[in-house]
Amino acid sequence: MKTVSAQLLTMIFLLLSQAASADIFRPAYLELSQTDAEHYSVLWRVPALPDNRRLAARVVFPGNVERAGESRSAIINNAWEERFEIVATGGLIDQQITIDGILGGATDVIVRVERMDGTTQLERLQPAEPVFTVTASPGPGEVAVAYFVLGVEHILGGIDHLLFVLALLLLVGNLRRLVITITAFTVAHSITLVCATLGWISLPGPPVEAVIALSIVFVAAEVIHEQQGRSSITARAPWIVAFGFGLLHGLGFAGALQEVGLPETAIPVALLMFNVGVEAGQLLFVAAVVIVGTLLGRVSRVPSSLVKRTVSYAIGSVAAFWTIERVTAFVQ
């Protein structure tokens, strides 16, 4: 791992830093809760823009749907929430629902349809294709696939988590240490993901996100210290740090999962497959770094130690910005 190409690390950092915002996972959220054959309660949540302006996105229902009663709107946790009731003559099964106003933007939409039988339909809509079809009750296999894909998408879109893993890759010295370190991180965040999602532990999200950013600063600094010959327990046993901070990152994963909830009839399957999806995405990222880094390392003449130090400073700087921004957000 010491020979991982400095050019590769620079490329990865530049790609990741394009998404350097304080809130990495802030999709819009649509929840449809069925109350009888033709009636649904609707929750529509969109991230608030600066000055509490509302994102210009709306739900477009099919022609057989009418609103019932008045809608209720409020700003909650830096997001606009609207609640209302709808009546779908003949039901919503096999009907298409579209999100209008996110095309060309960067906001995905998480959709959750709660049926009367306790089953759940889960969708993640992207700006390029903001439409979905309401389906009948799914089987366990469909639930497993939906939550696996959600887990993969979350970790690959979670730039702060990937920067932490990248900093760990810079810190470890060989494949054996890498395997142990990643395993420790996996075990730790799996523990807190399960505990937080099932309600066994509870911590406020904003401070957790701030500490996650601070953990990236810490590991980036340890990479610099290791290059300067200042040995520490982090350099000698990075798996200890990976486990400790992995507990915090698991709380961050749980926050994302709690955004969409778990299907009442398949909680174990959904929770397991979300975690498996997170691990699959993480391993894809690690494999990409190792494989491409090995290939580029054979032709690179740039001193890897120099660029490694530069990339570490850059990672730490971005993470420090996140830390300040996130702390400022919840202390105001």
UniProtKB/TrEMBL annotation:
<feature type="transmembrane region" description="Helical">
    <location>
        <begin position="145"/>
        <end position="171"/>
    </location>
</feature>
<feature type="transmembrane region" description="Helical">
    <location>
        <begin position="237"/>
        <end position="257"/>
    </location>
</feature>
<keyword id="KW-0732">Signal</keyword>
<feature type="transmembrane region" description="Helical">
    <location>
        <begin position="269"/>
        <end position="296"/>
    </location>
</feature>
<keyword id="KW-1133">Transmembrane helix</keyword>
<keyword id="KW-0812">Transmembrane</keyword>
<feature type="transmembrane region" description="Helical">
    <location>
        <begin position="207"/>
        <end position="225"/>
    </location>
</feature>
<keyword id="KW-0472">Membrane</keyword>
<dbReference type="Pfam" id="PF13795">
    <property type="entry name" value="HupE_UreJ_2"/>
</dbReference>
<dbReference type="InterPro" id="IPR032809">
    <property type="entry name" value="Put_HupE_UreJ"/>
</dbReference>
<feature type="transmembrane region" description="Helical">
    <location>
        <begin position="178"/>
        <end position="201"/>
    </location>
</feature>
<protein>
    <submittedName>
        <fullName>HupE/UreJ family protein</fullName>
    </submittedName>
</protein>
<feature type="signal peptide">
    <location>
        <begin position="1"/>
        <end position="22"/>
    </location>
</feature>
